[in-house]
Design goal:
Distance between the termini: 13 Å
Helix content: 40-55%
Order of helices and strands: HEEEEEEEEHEHHHHHHHHH
Oligomer: single chain
């Protein structure tokens, strides 16, 4: 998972205090990590971003808030955050200090195809739109809490074929449980004011047409300075950076559909190829042509 490696390297470079992360590449389409980290408001890596794969976080502890699209969640122990591909999201600390402990899976929808278990990814696709928090019944939570330490223990052993097979067996059980028992019926709590939600929706709808932050401010009858300050207060990034990520995410989707690179460039809102290539590489760690080649290689696999 080349894009995943790029994202993790960025995190480590920006936050060298990150420790207690155990990371395991299960196959080319599935990555698992156990993470337990002490954070404060200064060190927490609150950063708006997206992936082209699913991110599934099983929360064990920590006062953390997730912002996914325009929805906000404060997950409790045993809750699951499921973020689909190309969804702009971020997490942030919800008090002065906290220890954030979680199990994280990054995966593509075909992660289980090679094991003749493609149905295990069905619940990823079947989640209701814009519903990012999943809950399990108490008995299913207990079963999950039993499987996760066994998975960790199997991955901590010497890397022998038997240990890898045992770890894979636990992962298959975990995703079987999620398919059978998960329900996405937990409502989001409110964090964003209505005017901020309206700004975000405008950006999401018109990102390919917007030419400047001033244009957005004028639409809402705000000053450029006020709109920029308001947006950064809630999204921890600038309007320009948000637009850039939306455009690159759109271009990735178009490339995945087979759109020629130059068409993907202009359809997603870029005005020239050089800016498109530079922006794409900054966010994804590869050029558009390299990304297309990676997708073609995946399809062959």
């Amino acid at each position: 998972m080349k894009k995943l490696s790029h994202y993790l390297n960025i995190q480590r470079a920006q936050h060298p205090q990150i420790v207690n992360w155990r990371e395991n590449s299960i196959n080319d389409f599935l990555f698992y990590s156990y993470r337990s980290t002490d954070y404060d408001r200064e060190t927490y890596p609150a950063r708006l971003h997206y992936h082209d794969y699913y991110e599934l976080v099983i929360v064990l502890s920590g006062k953390i808030r997730y912002l996914c699209g325009s929805h906000s969640y404060q997950p409790q122990k045993g809750d699951i955050i499921l973020i689909p591909p190309r969804t702009l999201h971020m997490s942030m600390i919800d008090e002065e200090t906290t220890r954030y402990t979680r199990h994280v899976f990054y995966l593509y929808p075909n992660a289980f195809d090679a094991h003749d278990c493609a149905a295990l990814a069905d619940f990823l696709r079947n989640q209701p739109p814009h519903q990012y928090l999943i809950t399990l019944p108490p008995e299913a939570q207990q079963e999950l809490f039993s499987l996760l330490p066994r998975l960790d223990q199997a991955l901590a052993q010497e890397d022998s074929p038997l240990d890898r097979a045992l770890a894979l067996g636990y992962i298959l059980q975990i995703f079987y449980l999620l398919n059978k028992k998960s329900r996405a019926d937990a409502p989001a709590d409110s964090l964003l004011p209505p005017n901020v939600v309206e700004i975000q929706r405008y950006l999401d709808t018109h990102f390919a047409e917007i030419t400047s932050v001033a244009q957005v401010a004028e639409h809402f009858y705000y000053s450029r300075e006020y709109l920029s300050r308001l947006f950064k207060q809630y999204f921890h990034t600038s309007v320009g950076d948000y637009l850039l990520k939306r455009r690159v995410a759109c271009s990735q989707s178009l490339i995945a559909q087979g759109t020629p690179l130059l068409d993907a460039c202009f359809l997603s809102g870029f005005t020239n190829a050089s800016t498109f290539i530079r922006s794409f590489r900054t966010i994804t760690g590869m050029t558009p042509s390299q990304y297309r080649a990676m997708l073609q290689e995946k399809r062959k696999d």
